[in-house]
Amino acid sequence: MVHINGYSDRPARSFLFKRVVGFITICAVFSLIWFNAGSEGQLRKTYTSVSKQVEKSAASALGREEQPDIDGQLKNVTTPSTNIFLPAPFPTLPPPDDEEYMAICMAVKNQSLDLPEFFTHYYFHHGIRRFYIFDDGTEPPLSSAPYPIPSSAITWVYFQPHIHSDKLGDRQGIQEKYYTGCVNMFGDMHTWMGFLDADEFLEMTGGETLSDFLHGWARNDTVGAVGVNWLVHSSAGLLTRPAEGPRKAFNRCIADDPQNDNLKVKTFVRTALFGTMWNCHCIAIMKNGAVQVGEHGDVIDKSCDRNPITRERWGLHHFGPKSREEFLQKQARGKIRGGKSTEHWWNKIENSEQRDCSELTKYVP
Q: Are residues 60 and 155 in the same domain?
């Protein structure tokens, strides 16, 4: 159509079309965090399907959808070209651990906002298909919130607030009891079990999958547990909770130093050899004289420190402080095992020598 002033409405319609396509694309991308794909192939299939739906929906929204004519043939309807890009998974996703060779156990309270990204990371990027979540009296229960992985992958264990003292000073050893109970109740269904917190994200730095890495250690009967060094991230100067989540937002971490928290490890244990724990970081006693080692076979003692610090095969990104807002919330809820994160600890991390840590910012999903 040509207006009286000689200008066509086609540019306006093209602009409107692009705006609609852009809006629908954004909605589609955000919706991807909720899909339940188990492999890279499934993810790519999902992305392709969404891409086609976006183009079709955009055309339909503008009345430009192809319509059959009287003869049942499709009319030759021309629509503006659209360049729709939906990112492929990165890095390459490992096969799903459908046999549940490995599992993750954790004790959590009042962190329903932190769990979606945790579940996404371990379900897709490490193939974990079994999570044991010990809910330490969250109200409403953590299980009442929506999560971006199949509910069948999560086993909830509940502890009512009255069972344990609310006084943080009386809770010493509770987290270790949760972990011990996790092995006693569910350990015979898995070969390995990792004890992690909701702010810890594993990276396989040496090109192995987590499953292959643990299968390798299972061939050594003297190894009962493997510890992974922390890489503690700072607040990166953020004051409020970032919308994009910790992996993309907190891209600064403290430099390795034998005097700082990067010495600490977290543990994956062979459930058949589990005995007792020193603390939430490492194992105290294992059966058959087995030991806990680092990634190079070096023995980790009861200090739960590992020096020299290395992450040549795997590393654990610890988003401890997060933003100032989140740190104050962390202080208010206290630690599962008693006590609170202190201002001294916040200042120690924030004032440490720091470097760029962008490894996890590239992860999709």
A: no
